[in-house]
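Action item from last week, closing it out:
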Amino acid sequence: LTLSQQLDRAPADSPARRALAESAQQAMTALFTLSAPAFDRAYLLSQVDMHRMVLNLLDTAVLPGIQNASLRTEMMTVRAAVAAHLMEAELLLRNVGDAGVPANIDASAL
């Protein structure tokens, strides 16, 4: 059984979930208009922004209201995964040059 089944709860829709989905859709639409090198940098920027938004939502709206210990443990695991993904995206972003080409690659060779 999943945790939601054990707790007899179904995931609920919310304005925050809809706002995140809309933001992700807007980012995807914008990304598909870019050249490959610019796409890389814009994609990483969007991932950093989205992961920061999710962490903020978890920290300010989700975690403070959780009373069930199992659910809190699961959401803390989710939070740790999101934080790890954010760190990876930030590291990749630091290694991407202004045009989206990794800084350690000679862009003229591409």
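Closing note: The first helix runs from residue 3 to 6.
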